Amino acid sequence: MPIVITLSPELEALLRDKATRQGQDVSLVASELLTSVLEWEVQESQEAIKGIQQGLDDFETGRFRSFREFAQEQRRKYNLPADS
Questions:
Q1: How far apart are CA 72 and CA 30, in angstroms?
Q2: Alpha-carbon Rg of the chain, whole angstroms?
Q3: CA angle, corner 43, sides to 48 and 15, nearest 5?
Q4: 42 with 50: CB under 8 angstroms?
Q5: What is the pLDDT of residue 29?
Q6: How far apart are CA 19 and CA 33, in angstroms?
Q7: What is d(CA 82, CA 71) in angstroms, rounded to the nearest whole number?
Q8: Helix, strand or coil for residue 73?
Q9: 79: DSSP letter
Q10: What is the spatial distance between Cα 40 and Cα 46, in angstroms, rounded to a whole number?
Q11: Sign of the C-alpha dihedral, residues 48, 54, 56, 62?
Q12: Checking CA distances to 20, which of 27, 42, 55, 58 falls within 20 to 30 Å?
C-alpha cells in the first residue's frame, strides 16, 4: 500500500532539487533518504543501549567515580570556574 506524505513547498523544492542534481526520480531519492534516516536511528538506539549497559556493568563492578570527581575533571579540562 503506498504511503502519501504531504511536504511543505520548501521541503518539496529541496527534494526535487536533490533528485535533479542526482539525475534520479524524486520518489527514489525520497525513499533512499528515509531509508538512511531510519537505519541511522536504529544504529543510534543500539549504540545508546550498549553505552547504558556498559555503564551499568561498570557500576556493578565498582568501576565508577563520583559526580564531584567528574565535575572537577571537566572544570580543569575546559578551564571552568569552580563552584562558589
A1: 47
A2: 23
A3: 125
A4: no
A5: 97
A6: 11
A7: 9
A8: helix
A9: T
A10: 10
A11: negative
A12: 42
Quick count: other Cβ atoms within 10 Å of Cβ 70? 11
Supply the pTM of this predicted model. Answer: 0.65
CA distance 73 to 57: 22
How many CA atoms, within 13 angstroms, populate the side-chain half-sphere of residue 20? 6
The Cα angle at residue 22 between residues 18 and 23, in degrees rounded to 5: 115
Cell of 41: 536511528
Type of residue found at 31: S
3-state secondary structure 16-81: HHHHHHHCCCHHHHHHHHHHHHHHHHHHHHHHHHHHHHHHHHHHHCCCCCCHHHHHHHHHHHCCCC
CA distance 41 to 45: 6
How many angstroms separate the Cα of 21 from the Cα of each of 26, 63, 77, 81? 11, 52, 45, 50
